[in-house]
Each structure stands twice: as structure tokens, then as C-alpha cells.
């Protein structure tokens, strides 16, 4: 094999796999080139995080991923003074490192973070592209190769945890959903190693279970869970056992709901 082919294969392996379903890759690339922040909206497990990892690798930029939660504060993103070796030193947070060094800072489920996080993000999401660090007195200007990306699940969040219009309108936004059946089958097959025909049955099952969202389920079956299920099946676990562990137990604790899910699974696989 020519050395150029070896290098190309190595580059492909270094980039996390992502199967595009529209113009999302081109839009992300343009947003990065034009120094625009991006907002990704979509259900849990539909590929938002994988997409960001894929694009960061394609662009050759470091990725700083933060999983937001109720206790996440602005200081967790920007940094704080810590006692190290008997002296107090400032330690940058992931957002500050991305601004100083360049790269993509991805805040997953940003609405879960505390309100002071939004205040820090605002000057980074307009033409100023500034990060003020009150504790150190610095005012950092983001370099051209810095990009802020945030995501959330609008169908799951309580109204008190939705993004304000004044914040949403600071971002270029894209809506994500689960891939079309043929694409999702290929994704599950590639990620799990299970034969595509067997993955197709799982994808069809997922469509049935997703139809239950809003009735008995808060969330539908994610592509991630389908990959888990296919992986266990490929490793030799009986289908019904694998399905219970990946498509039933993670989705509900209610015994009646679990029974309904198992009935749908048994109807598909027998």
C-alpha cells in the first residue's frame, strides 16, 4: 500500500465516525470559518456530541467538552484560584483554555447549568468575542480559531430551564433528530459490528418505541442505545436479554411501562 494511502487511512481512523444526513457539516464548517457560535438542538442520543467531535477532528482543532449540570458555575468554565504546592495559583477552566489557545468549546445540555454561565457566554457570542476574567482582571479576546458550541434538548427541558430568546438569538442554530432508518441501520452496524440486516430490525423496533414518547416514555430510544443493544447481540447475548438491558431498563423504572416495552420487543423478535 502506498504511504499516501496509509496516511489517509490513519487520518480517517483518527476522525470519529459520523454519517451526515444533510448539510450540517458544511454549515458547521462555515460557522467556524466566519467565527460564529453554534447551537445544536435535538433529542438525547441522536448524535450531537459525536457530530461535534467529528467536526473538531476534521478541522484539526482541540475540543473542550463540558457536560453541564445543576451545580456547574461560571467559575467551573473560566477557572479559579487553587492552592498548589503551598501557594495560590490561578488555574484556567476549559472555556478559558479554549479562548487562550484556540479550539472548540462544547457545552452539552447548556440549559442545565446555572444562570451565571449564560452571563459569561454573552460577550463571546457577539462581535466582541471577549471573555472577561474578573478574578484576574484579564479581558481575553478569542482568536480566529476559537468556536463556542452549545446543545440542549428542547423537547425534554422544563420551561424554567429553556434558553431565553435573547440567548438563542446569539447563535447559528441547527436541529438534530434521529437519522433516517437506512442511515441509522448503517450507523448501528458500523459502530457495533452486527450485520446490517439484524440492525435493520432494531431500527424498526426503535421507531415503534419512539412513538411511545410523550405517552409512557419521557424520551425515545436513542441511537446510542441501539448501538449498545447491537453490540451485546453481536457478542452472543440473547436478543431479549440484550433488549431488556439496553432498550427497557434505561428508559423506565415503571413496571407496567417496562412490560409494555417488552411486549413490543417480543412482537418484533418473537
UniProtKB/TrEMBL annotation:
Q: Which residues form a coiled coil?
A: none
What keywords were assigned to this record? ATP-binding, Nucleotide-binding
Q: Domain (CbbQ/NirQ/NorQ C-terminal): give its ranges.
A: 184-267
Q: Which Gene3D superfamilies match?
A: P-loop containing nucleotide triphosphate hydrolases
**Pfam families hit by this protein:** AAA_5, CbbQ_C
For the ATPase dynein-related AAA domain, which residue ranges apply? Answer: 38-171
Q: Which family does it belong to?
A: Belongs to the CbbQ/NirQ/NorQ/GpvN family.
Q: What is this protein called?
A: CbbQ/NirQ/NorQ/GpvN family protein
Amino acid at each position: 500500500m502506498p504511504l499516501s494511502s496509509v496516511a489517509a487511512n490513519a487520518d480517517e481512523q483518527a476522525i470519529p465516525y459520523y454519517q451526515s444526513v444533510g448539510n450540517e457539516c458544511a454549515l458547521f464548517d462555515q460557522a467556524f470559518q466566519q467565527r460564529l457560535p453554534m447551537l445544536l438542538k435535538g433529542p438525547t442520543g441522536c448524535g450531537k456530541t459525536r457530530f461535534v467531535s467529528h467536526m473538531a477532528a476534521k478541522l484539526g482543532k482541540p475540543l473542550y467538552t463540558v457536560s453541564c449540570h445543576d451545580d456547574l458555575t461560571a467559575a467551573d468554565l473560566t477557572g479559579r484560584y487553587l492552592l498548589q504546592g503551598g501557594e495560590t495559583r490561578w488555574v484556567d477552566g476549559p472555556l478559558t483554555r479554549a479562548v487562550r489557545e484556540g479550539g472548540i468549546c462544547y457545552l452539552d445540555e447548556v440549559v442545565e447549568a446555572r444562570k451565571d454561565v449564560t452571563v459569561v457566554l454573552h460577550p463571546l457570542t457577539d462581535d466582541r468575542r471577549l471573555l472577561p476574567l474578573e478574578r484576574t482582571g484579564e479581558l481575553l479576546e478569542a482568536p480566529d480559531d476559537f468556536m463556542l458550541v452549545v446543545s440542549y434538548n428542547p423537547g425534554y427541558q422544563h420551561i424554567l430551564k429553556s434558553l431565553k430568546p435573547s440567548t438563542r438569538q446569539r447563535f447559528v442554530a441547527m436541529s438534530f433528530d434521529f437519522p433516517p432508518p437506512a442511515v441509522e441501520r448503517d450507523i448501528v452496524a458500523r459502530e457495533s459490528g452486527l450485520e446490517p440486516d439484524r440492525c435493520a430490525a432494531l431500527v424498526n423496533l426503535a421507531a415503534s418505541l419512539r412513538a411511545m414518547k410523550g405517552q409512557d416514555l419521557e424520551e425515545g430510544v436513542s441511537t446510542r442505545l441501539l448501538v449498545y443493544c447491537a453490540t451485546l447481540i453481536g457478542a452472543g447475548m440473547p436478543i431479549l436479554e440484550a433488549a431488556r438491558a439496553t432498550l427497557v431498563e434505561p428508559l423506565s423504572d415503571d413496571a407496567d411501562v417496562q412490560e409494555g416495552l417488552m411486549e413490543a420487543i417480543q412482537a418484533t423478535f418473537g
